[in-house]
Amino acid sequence: MLLLPQPGTHSTDRETAIQCDVSSKILDIFLTHISPNHFLLPMTLEETRTLLSLYDKFDCSEHVVKMLKSSLMDSSKTMPWETLIVASDRIDRQLGAEALRSMSRDIFVKGENENGIFHASNLRRSMNRLRIEWRCKIWDLVLDDQTTDATVTRIRASRWKSRRRNWHTSYHPQVTRETVLPFKGDWHEIARRFEEDEW
Q1: Radius of gyration of the chain (CA)
Q2: Is 18 inside a domain boundary?
Q3: 9-17 long-range CB contacts below 8 Å, 24 or more apart?
Q4: Structural domain includes residue 3
């Protein structure tokens, strides 16, 4: 457990510094939270994630950890993918279920938001940031059991050179008929099973 010296006292032993590889802002929030009159300061999701790691490292009060988890639960409504990744890191199925509950098929398919830009590969990259057992369970829950035929439109890029020898890229839709495995639509049920199933 992290012990802080009381005001007005000093140790006669040679004091050693605690090495924390965090920014001064994170350290300031950390010390504010563990002080006797602690209160929750506004912070980003990444700062919350770093603080939780610090609390684990120094075995801090369960009350402070609960406050931060409550903050993460709130953030799951606006940043479900980011919250799901934090939940996976912490092996917190309750938080993971809350993040899934806040998703829809469109949010899930887009994956984690990277600076406001969504790429086709975001879903794969986002899923790969989860623990392997989480990935397997989520795929099991979100994919329907029955395949179906669907019209699939893909945007294909083609590069070409102009008469002035400048390269350009044109995008063309390519429509095909394919057999697909659709996503389920009931995200509340997906979240419930994620939290309650034995796995």
Answers
A1: 23
A2: no
A3: none
A4: no
Average pLDDT over residues 101-126: 82
Rounded Cα distance, 140 and 168, in Å = 42
- State pTM to two decimals: 0.69
Q: Which residues contact 91 (CB under 8 A, 6 or more apart)?
A: 131
Q: How confident is the model at residue 167 (pLDDT cuts 50, 70, 90)?
A: very high
Q: Are 147 and 179 in contact (CB under 8 A)?
A: yes
**Is residue 6 one of the residues assigned to a domain?**
no
pLDDT digits (tens, 9 = 90+) for 86-97: 999 989 999 999
Average pLDDT over residues 115-133: 82
Q: Between vectors from CA 172 to CA 167 and to CA 177, what angle results, nearest 5°?
A: 145
pLDDT in tens, 51-81: 788 777 777 777 777 877 888 888 889 899 9
Domain of 111 in residue numbering reads as 24-162+179-196
Distance (Å, whole) CA 175 – CA 19? 57
- The residue-averaged pLDDT of 39-44 equals 65
Per-position b or e across 27-65, b if 16+ CB within 10 A of its CB: eebbeebbeeeeeeeebebebbbbbbebbeeeebeeebe
SS3 call for 22: coil
Task: Decide if 69 contacts 95 (C-beta within 8 A).
Answer: yes
Whether 13 is covered by a domain: the verdict is no
Total domains in the fold of the chain: 1
